[in-house]
């Protein structure tokens, strides 16, 4: 054995995959799928019959869960598609800073800073509710390394 000391720097995450494979023929409406490297919610699925080349095809119409764009893909039903791991978590709103960042209270009492909103109308709803002194809970959706606020609930007044 040598007396050398080795140090390794890791700039990667814990190694958890952002997606998992699922057979195209088993993906249904209101499920999730990755189309053009974007996490999407399936709004329509149609399956063609087996043709000359031996595979039934699935036609997916889906909406990007973060930007709302409509995407389409056609995949043989026996092939695998990537499906994103989608998480939705509720946090209590603690504060809104002047530069647009919000502070959220997590279950482990760590302040979480986030600056992702669905349009200025949604931000105005959060800001107005906070200014009125309401206790607000925001829902944060995360998938494939992105996260965004996608819901707001009033749980009562202070």
TrEMBL record:
Report the PTM annotation.
eIF-5A seems to be the only eukaryotic protein to have a hypusine residue which is a post-translational modification of a lysine by the addition of a butylamino group.
- Region labeled Disordered — which residues? 1-20
Matching PROSITE patterns: IF5A_HYPUSINE (PS00302)
User: Taking every annotated instance into account, which residue ranges of this chain make up the domain Translation initiation factor 5A C-terminal?
Assistant: 85-153
Which SUPFAM superfamilies does the record associate with it?
Answer: Nucleic acid-binding proteins, Translation proteins SH3-like domain
> What InterPro entries does the database record attribute to this sequence?
IF5A-like (IPR001884), IF5A-like_N (IPR048670), IF5A_C (IPR020189), NA-bd_OB-fold (IPR012340), Rib_uL2_dom2 (IPR014722), Trans_elong_IF5A_hypusine_site (IPR019769), Translation_prot_SH3-like_sf (IPR008991)
Cross-referenced Gene3D superfamilies, in alphabetical order? 2.30.30.30, Nucleic acid-binding proteins
For this UniProt record, give its keywords in alphabetical order, as a comma-separated list: Hypusine, Initiation factor, Protein biosynthesis
One Gene Ontology MF term:
translation elongation factor activity
Keyword RNA-binding listed? The answer is: no
Checking Pfam families in the record gives:
eIF-5a, IF5A-like_N
List where Basic and acidic residues composition bias occurs: 1-12
Biological process terms from the Gene Ontology for this record are: positive regulation of translational elongation; positive regulation of translational termination
Role: Translation factor that promotes translation elongation and termination, particularly upon ribosome stalling at specific amino acid sequence contexts. Binds between the exit (E) and peptidyl (P) site of the ribosome and promotes rescue of stalled ribosome: specifically required for efficient translation of polyproline-containing peptides as well as other motifs that stall the ribosome. Acts as ribosome quality control (RQC) cofactor by joining the RQC complex to facilitate peptidyl transfer during CAT tailing step.
UniProt family annotation: Belongs to the eIF-5A family.
UniProt xrefs under PANTHER family: TRANSLATION INITIATION FACTOR 5A FAMILY MEMBER
Q: Which NCBIfam families match?
A: eIF_5A
Which protein are we looking at? Answer: Eukaryotic translation initiation factor 5A
């Amino acid at each position: 054995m040598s007396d050398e000391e080795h140090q390794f720097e890791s700039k990667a995450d814990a190694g958890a995959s952002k997606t998992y494979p699922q057979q195209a023929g088993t993906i249904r409406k209101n499920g999730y799928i990755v189309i053009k490297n974007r996490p999407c919610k399936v709004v329509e699925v149609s399956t063609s019959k087996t043709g000359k080349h031996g595979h039934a095809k699935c036609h997916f119409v889906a909406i990007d869960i973060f930007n709302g764009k409509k995407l389409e893909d056609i995949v043989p039903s026996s092939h695998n598609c990537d499906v994103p791991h989608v998480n939705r978590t509720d946090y209590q709103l603690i504060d809104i800073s002047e530069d647009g960042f919000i502070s959220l209270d997590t279950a482990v009492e760590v302040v979480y800073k986030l600056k992702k909103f669905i349009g200025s109308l949604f931000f105005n709803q959060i800001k107005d509710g906070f200014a009125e002194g309401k206790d607000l809970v925001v829902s944060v959706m995360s998938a494939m390394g992105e996260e965004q606020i996608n819901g707001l609930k009033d749980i009562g007044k202070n």
